[in-house]
Amino acid sequence: MSILEIKELHVSYGHVQAVRGLTLNVDEKAIVSLVGANGAGKSTLLKSIMGLVAVKSGDILLQGASITNEVTSTIVSRGIAMSPEGRRVFPQLSVMDNLVLGAYTQRGGAGQREDLERMFTYFPILKARKKQRAGSLSGGEQQMLAIARALMSKPRILLLDEPSLGLAPLMVNLIGEIILQLNREERTVLLVEQNARMALKLADYAYVLETGKVVLQDEGAKLLQNDHVVKAYLGG
Ligand code: ATP
């Protein structure tokens, strides 16, 4: 069953039509990947789901109810969170304070302490660094912090924008493992990646975006064998 449905979505920045009639579905408890070149509209789609850019036409449905152009705090409280591209952590704040900010829809207290402990189980390195300034973490550690911060709002759907960007292969593998673990814990993941191989290996289902539209869709494993995907995105 689809938990998230995107229907005929159009998003523009002035004259630039970034998303042009995009339709896709995300099934509950699935990992769904979006692959595509620079400028295909992947980040714009995630931002429009989060209410960070205005939707011109079309609809975004969460469990059948429209969340199109809702304010971001409402969307977060309805159970969606995003780890944005470029590891946007608050560099001057400690690791701990970055995490607490991610839980801003909840009050502090015991629940929050439990959530912090859970994050430190997923990402033990963040526990060791909890008092350190986020800006002093390595790229991979900042990526983990950005994911952990998004998880602090206890989302049912986690949107991840380019989590592997700029990371060494070992760290990319680790991020992949974490995505699989989150999914085993029944979280739905919508993953945007330029690393098409990683994205398709992880995906139950995947979409290929070109110039703001879906041009191909299938199970991740099947798209890994698709001629166009191999030539255009897997260096084949
Ligand atoms: P990338 O992987 O490079 O981030 P993407 O698939 O995520 O690519 P988007 O960032 O969604 O693509 O960009 C889609 C189109 O919208 C591009 O043509 C881009 O130049 C344009 N665009 C994105 N953000 C803005 C903005 N703030 N103002 C104007 N144009 C924008």
Quickly list its features.
236 residues; alpha/beta; 4-stranded antiparallel beta sheet; binds adenosine-5'-triphosphate
Provide structural commentary.
The chain is α/β, with parallel strands linked by helices and 236 residues long. Helices cover 37% and strands 28% of the residues. It is built from ten helices and ten strands. The chain has helices at 42-49, 72-77, 95-102, 110-122, 124-128, 139-151, 169-184, 196-202, 220-223, 227-233; strands at 2-13, 16-27, 31-35, 57-62, 65-66, 80-83, 157-161, 188-193, 205-210, 213-219. Strands 6-7-8-3-9-10 form a six-stranded mixed sheet, sandwiched between helices. A four-stranded antiparallel sheet has the order 2-1-4-5, covered by helices on one side. A hairpin with a 2-residue loop joins strand 1 and strand 2 (16-27). Helix 3 runs parallel beside helix 6. It is globular, with a radius of gyration of 17 Å. It starts with a strand and ends with a helix. Bound molecules: adenosine-5'-triphosphate. Residues 13, 16, 18, 36, 38-44, 194 line the site of adenosine-5'-triphosphate (ATP).
